[in-house]
Design goal:
- By secondary structure, the protein is α/β, with parallel strands linked by helices.
- It folds into two domains: about 130 residues, Rossmann fold; about 150 residues, Rossmann fold (3-Layer(aba) Sandwich).
- Helix content is about 40%, strand content about 20%.
- The protein contains ten helices and twelve strands.
- Strands 7-6-5-8-9-11-10 form a seven-stranded mixed sheet. A five-stranded parallel sheet has the order 2-1-3-4-12, with helices on both faces.
- Helix 2 packs across helix 3, helix 4 packs parallel to helix 5 and helix 4 crosses helix 10.
- The longest helix is centred in the last third of the chain and has 18 residues.
- It is elongated, with a radius of gyration of 19 Å.
Length: about 290
Protein backbone atom coordinates (compact mmCIF):
# COMPACT_ATOMS: atom_id res chain seq x y z
CA UNK A 1 0.00 0.00 0.00
CA UNK A 2 1.44 3.34 -1.05
CA UNK A 3 2.27 6.11 1.42
CA UNK A 4 0.09 9.12 0.59
CA UNK A 5 0.85 12.59 1.97
CA UNK A 6 -1.93 15.16 1.62
CA UNK A 7 -0.63 18.74 1.62
CA UNK A 8 -3.08 21.37 2.84
CA UNK A 9 -1.63 24.81 2.15
CA UNK A 10 -3.30 28.02 3.30
CA UNK A 11 -1.71 29.96 0.40
CA UNK A 12 -3.07 30.07 -3.15
CA UNK A 13 -0.26 27.89 -4.53
CA UNK A 14 0.93 24.91 -2.46
CA UNK A 15 4.59 25.30 -1.50
CA UNK A 16 7.04 23.74 -3.94
CA UNK A 17 9.63 23.58 -1.14
CA UNK A 18 7.33 21.48 1.04
CA UNK A 19 6.44 19.26 -1.90
CA UNK A 20 10.09 18.51 -2.69
CA UNK A 21 10.84 17.69 0.94
CA UNK A 22 7.80 15.40 1.08
CA UNK A 23 9.06 13.39 -1.87
CA UNK A 24 12.57 13.22 -0.41
CA UNK A 25 11.06 12.03 2.88
CA UNK A 26 9.49 9.00 1.23
CA UNK A 27 5.95 10.05 0.32
CA UNK A 28 5.01 7.88 -2.64
CA UNK A 29 1.97 9.92 -3.64
CA UNK A 30 1.50 13.62 -2.89
CA UNK A 31 -1.88 15.36 -3.10
CA UNK A 32 -1.59 19.15 -2.81
CA UNK A 33 -4.40 21.63 -2.15
CA UNK A 34 -4.09 25.42 -1.98
CA UNK A 35 -6.37 28.01 -0.38
CA UNK A 36 -7.36 25.46 2.25
CA UNK A 37 -9.32 26.89 5.18
CA UNK A 38 -10.99 25.46 8.31
CA UNK A 39 -14.33 25.92 6.52
CA UNK A 40 -13.32 23.92 3.44
CA UNK A 41 -11.10 21.21 4.88
CA UNK A 42 -13.63 18.80 6.42
CA UNK A 43 -14.65 17.08 3.19
CA UNK A 44 -11.01 16.72 2.16
CA UNK A 45 -10.13 15.12 5.51
CA UNK A 46 -13.08 12.75 5.19
CA UNK A 47 -11.60 11.65 1.89
CA UNK A 48 -8.41 10.72 3.74
CA UNK A 49 -10.22 8.97 6.60
CA UNK A 50 -12.81 6.85 4.82
CA UNK A 51 -10.90 5.40 1.86
CA UNK A 52 -8.78 3.00 3.88
CA UNK A 53 -9.55 0.72 6.79
CA UNK A 54 -8.32 1.66 10.30
CA UNK A 55 -5.46 -0.83 10.03
CA UNK A 56 -4.21 0.88 6.85
CA UNK A 57 -4.66 4.55 7.81
CA UNK A 58 -1.04 4.82 8.91
CA UNK A 59 -0.22 4.93 5.20
CA UNK A 60 -2.08 8.24 4.81
CA UNK A 61 -0.90 11.46 6.47
CA UNK A 62 -1.53 15.20 6.34
CA UNK A 63 0.95 18.07 6.12
CA UNK A 64 -0.24 21.61 6.91
CA UNK A 65 1.78 24.43 5.38
CA UNK A 66 1.53 27.94 3.99
CA UNK A 67 2.95 31.36 4.70
CA UNK A 68 0.94 32.07 7.86
CA UNK A 69 1.62 30.11 11.04
CA UNK A 70 -1.59 31.41 12.63
CA UNK A 71 -3.63 30.18 9.65
CA UNK A 72 -1.80 26.85 9.79
CA UNK A 73 -2.59 26.42 13.47
CA UNK A 74 -6.27 27.19 12.88
CA UNK A 75 -6.36 24.71 10.00
CA UNK A 76 -4.68 22.03 12.12
CA UNK A 77 -7.25 22.49 14.89
CA UNK A 78 -10.05 22.05 12.37
CA UNK A 79 -8.45 18.90 10.99
CA UNK A 80 -8.02 17.33 14.42
CA UNK A 81 -11.67 18.07 15.31
CA UNK A 82 -12.75 16.09 12.26
CA UNK A 83 -11.24 12.83 13.55
CA UNK A 84 -13.11 10.37 15.75
CA UNK A 85 -12.29 6.99 17.26
CA UNK A 86 -9.82 5.06 15.10
CA UNK A 87 -10.75 7.14 12.05
CA UNK A 88 -7.79 9.49 11.96
CA UNK A 89 -4.46 10.01 10.23
CA UNK A 90 -1.20 11.54 11.40
CA UNK A 91 -0.75 15.31 10.98
CA UNK A 92 2.24 17.65 10.80
CA UNK A 93 2.05 21.46 10.93
CA UNK A 94 5.05 23.47 9.72
CA UNK A 95 3.73 26.61 8.08
CA UNK A 96 6.61 28.66 6.67
CA UNK A 97 9.02 26.24 8.35
CA UNK A 98 8.16 27.74 11.74
CA UNK A 99 8.37 24.57 13.82
CA UNK A 100 11.28 22.81 12.13
CA UNK A 101 13.43 25.98 12.06
CA UNK A 102 12.79 26.95 15.69
CA UNK A 103 13.26 23.36 16.83
CA UNK A 104 16.58 23.03 15.00
CA UNK A 105 17.88 26.32 16.40
CA UNK A 106 17.03 25.57 20.03
CA UNK A 107 18.21 21.96 19.73
CA UNK A 108 21.62 23.17 18.55
CA UNK A 109 21.80 25.66 21.41
CA UNK A 110 20.89 22.88 23.86
CA UNK A 111 23.51 20.56 22.39
CA UNK A 112 26.32 23.04 23.04
CA UNK A 113 25.11 24.82 26.19
CA UNK A 114 22.71 23.93 28.99
CA UNK A 115 19.46 25.91 28.86
CA UNK A 116 18.10 25.39 32.38
CA UNK A 117 18.31 28.63 34.37
CA UNK A 118 20.16 30.66 31.74
CA UNK A 119 19.24 34.07 30.38
CA UNK A 120 18.21 33.94 26.71
CA UNK A 121 17.03 36.61 24.29
CA UNK A 122 14.97 36.11 21.14
CA UNK A 123 15.10 39.02 18.72
CA UNK A 124 12.05 39.13 16.47
CA UNK A 125 10.24 37.08 19.08
CA UNK A 126 6.70 37.68 17.83
CA UNK A 127 7.31 36.21 14.36
CA UNK A 128 6.39 32.59 13.62
CA UNK A 129 9.89 31.22 14.24
CA UNK A 130 10.84 33.59 17.06
CA UNK A 131 7.68 32.85 19.01
CA UNK A 132 8.30 29.12 18.89
CA UNK A 133 12.00 29.50 19.71
CA UNK A 134 11.05 31.56 22.77
CA UNK A 135 8.52 28.93 23.82
CA UNK A 136 11.02 26.09 23.49
CA UNK A 137 13.67 27.99 25.44
CA UNK A 138 11.16 28.80 28.19
CA UNK A 139 10.03 25.16 28.33
CA UNK A 140 13.67 24.16 28.85
CA UNK A 141 13.84 26.42 31.91
CA UNK A 142 15.56 29.46 30.44
CA UNK A 143 14.56 32.99 31.40
CA UNK A 144 13.58 34.49 28.06
CA UNK A 145 13.52 38.08 26.89
CA UNK A 146 11.09 38.20 23.99
CA UNK A 147 11.87 41.25 21.87
CA UNK A 148 9.58 42.99 19.40
CA UNK A 149 9.11 46.48 18.00
CA UNK A 150 5.63 46.46 19.57
CA UNK A 151 5.16 46.30 23.34
CA UNK A 152 1.62 44.97 22.90
CA UNK A 153 2.69 42.20 20.55
CA UNK A 154 5.58 41.21 22.83
CA UNK A 155 3.25 41.05 25.84
CA UNK A 156 0.64 39.06 23.91
CA UNK A 157 3.29 36.58 22.75
CA UNK A 158 4.53 36.08 26.31
CA UNK A 159 0.96 35.59 27.55
CA UNK A 160 0.34 32.98 24.85
CA UNK A 161 3.46 31.02 25.84
CA UNK A 162 2.66 31.32 29.56
CA UNK A 163 -0.81 29.89 28.93
CA UNK A 164 0.86 26.69 27.72
CA UNK A 165 3.78 26.68 30.20
CA UNK A 166 2.77 27.91 33.64
CA UNK A 167 6.33 28.07 34.96
CA UNK A 168 7.70 29.97 31.95
CA UNK A 169 9.95 32.90 32.85
CA UNK A 170 9.30 35.50 30.15
CA UNK A 171 9.99 39.21 29.83
CA UNK A 172 8.40 41.12 26.95
CA UNK A 173 10.64 43.89 25.60
CA UNK A 174 9.81 46.55 23.02
CA UNK A 175 12.87 47.88 21.20
CA UNK A 176 13.76 49.34 17.82
CA UNK A 177 17.40 50.25 18.46
CA UNK A 178 20.31 49.44 20.79
CA UNK A 179 19.78 45.70 20.72
CA UNK A 180 23.22 45.20 22.27
CA UNK A 181 21.86 46.58 25.53
CA UNK A 182 18.76 44.41 25.20
CA UNK A 183 20.95 41.31 24.85
CA UNK A 184 23.36 42.23 27.67
CA UNK A 185 23.79 39.38 30.14
CA UNK A 186 22.31 36.77 27.83
CA UNK A 187 24.06 33.44 27.34
CA UNK A 188 21.98 32.55 24.28
CA UNK A 189 20.69 34.96 21.64
CA UNK A 190 18.54 33.90 18.68
CA UNK A 191 17.85 36.38 15.91
CA UNK A 192 14.59 35.51 14.15
CA UNK A 193 13.54 38.82 12.66
CA UNK A 194 12.20 39.63 9.24
CA UNK A 195 14.44 39.34 6.18
CA UNK A 196 16.88 42.21 5.85
CA UNK A 197 16.65 43.39 9.48
CA UNK A 198 20.02 43.74 11.23
CA UNK A 199 19.79 43.69 15.02
CA UNK A 200 23.45 43.35 15.98
CA UNK A 201 25.99 45.19 13.80
CA UNK A 202 29.71 44.52 13.52
CA UNK A 203 31.43 44.57 16.92
CA UNK A 204 28.40 43.50 18.94
CA UNK A 205 29.70 40.07 19.92
CA UNK A 206 32.75 41.58 21.57
CA UNK A 207 30.49 43.71 23.76
CA UNK A 208 28.34 40.76 24.83
CA UNK A 209 30.96 39.10 27.01
CA UNK A 210 28.53 36.64 28.64
CA UNK A 211 27.19 35.35 25.34
CA UNK A 212 27.89 31.66 24.69
CA UNK A 213 25.59 30.82 21.75
CA UNK A 214 24.54 33.20 18.96
CA UNK A 215 22.13 31.98 16.28
CA UNK A 216 21.11 34.08 13.29
CA UNK A 217 18.24 32.61 11.28
CA UNK A 218 18.11 35.34 8.64
CA UNK A 219 19.73 34.41 5.34
CA UNK A 220 18.89 37.65 3.50
CA UNK A 221 21.47 40.49 3.65
CA UNK A 222 21.84 42.39 5.83
CA UNK A 223 21.67 39.46 8.23
CA UNK A 224 20.36 39.74 11.77
CA UNK A 225 23.84 39.47 13.30
CA UNK A 226 26.36 41.03 10.97
CA UNK A 227 29.37 39.14 12.31
CA UNK A 228 27.86 35.70 11.72
CA UNK A 229 28.42 34.01 8.37
CA UNK A 230 25.55 32.14 6.73
CA UNK A 231 27.47 28.86 6.87
CA UNK A 232 28.67 29.19 10.49
CA UNK A 233 28.05 26.00 12.44
CA UNK A 234 29.52 26.14 15.95
CA UNK A 235 32.17 28.59 14.74
CA UNK A 236 33.79 30.48 17.63
CA UNK A 237 33.87 34.26 17.30
CA UNK A 238 34.96 36.43 20.26
CA UNK A 239 34.29 33.54 22.64
CA UNK A 240 30.81 32.84 21.25
CA UNK A 241 29.73 29.75 19.30
CA UNK A 242 27.99 31.09 16.21
CA UNK A 243 25.40 29.52 13.91
CA UNK A 244 24.23 31.06 10.65
CA UNK A 245 21.04 30.36 8.74
CA UNK A 246 22.64 27.68 6.58
CA UNK A 247 24.45 26.25 9.58
CA UNK A 248 21.07 25.65 11.22
CA UNK A 249 19.45 24.73 7.91
CA UNK A 250 21.19 21.38 7.62
CA UNK A 251 19.57 20.14 10.83
CA UNK A 252 16.27 21.85 9.97
CA UNK A 253 16.05 19.90 6.72
CA UNK A 254 16.85 16.59 8.45
CA UNK A 255 14.17 17.32 11.04
CA UNK A 256 11.64 18.19 8.32
CA UNK A 257 12.29 14.99 6.38
CA UNK A 258 12.38 12.79 9.48
CA UNK A 259 9.16 14.29 10.83
CA UNK A 260 7.32 13.55 7.59
CA UNK A 261 8.73 10.03 7.48
CA UNK A 262 7.56 9.43 11.06
CA UNK A 263 3.96 10.26 10.13
CA UNK A 264 3.68 6.88 8.42
CA UNK A 265 4.63 4.93 11.56
CA UNK A 266 1.09 5.18 12.98
CA UNK A 267 -2.18 6.92 12.22
CA UNK A 268 -2.36 9.08 15.33
CA UNK A 269 0.77 11.23 15.42
CA UNK A 270 0.47 15.00 15.78
CA UNK A 271 3.76 16.67 14.87
CA UNK A 272 3.67 20.26 16.12
CA UNK A 273 6.18 22.37 18.06
CA UNK A 274 6.94 20.09 21.03
CA UNK A 275 7.05 16.82 19.09
CA UNK A 276 9.18 18.31 16.32
CA UNK A 277 11.56 19.73 18.93
CA UNK A 278 11.96 16.33 20.58
CA UNK A 279 12.90 14.91 17.19
CA UNK A 280 15.34 17.78 16.58
CA UNK A 281 17.08 17.11 19.89
CA UNK A 282 17.46 13.45 19.00
CA UNK A 283 18.97 14.29 15.63
CA UNK A 284 21.22 17.01 17.03
CA UNK A 285 22.46 14.64 19.71
CA UNK A 286 23.42 12.08 17.10
CA UNK A 287 25.78 14.54 15.46
CA UNK A 288 23.47 15.62 12.65
Amino acid sequence: MKKILIQFDTDTQPSVFDRVVAVDAGAEQLFSYGNTTPETVTGLVHGAMFTRGPQDLKNTAIFVGGGSAAAGEALTRAILKTFFGPMRVSVMMDSNGCNTTAAAAVALARKHHGLQGIQATVLGGTGPVGLRAAELLAAEGASVRLVSRSADRAAAACDAIASRHESAALTPIAAETDFVSVCAGSEVVISAGAAGVCFLPEGSLQQLNQLKIAIDLNAVPPTGMQEIELTDKAVERDGTLCFGALGVGGLKMKVHRSAISSLFESNDKVMETAAIYQLACELAGSGS
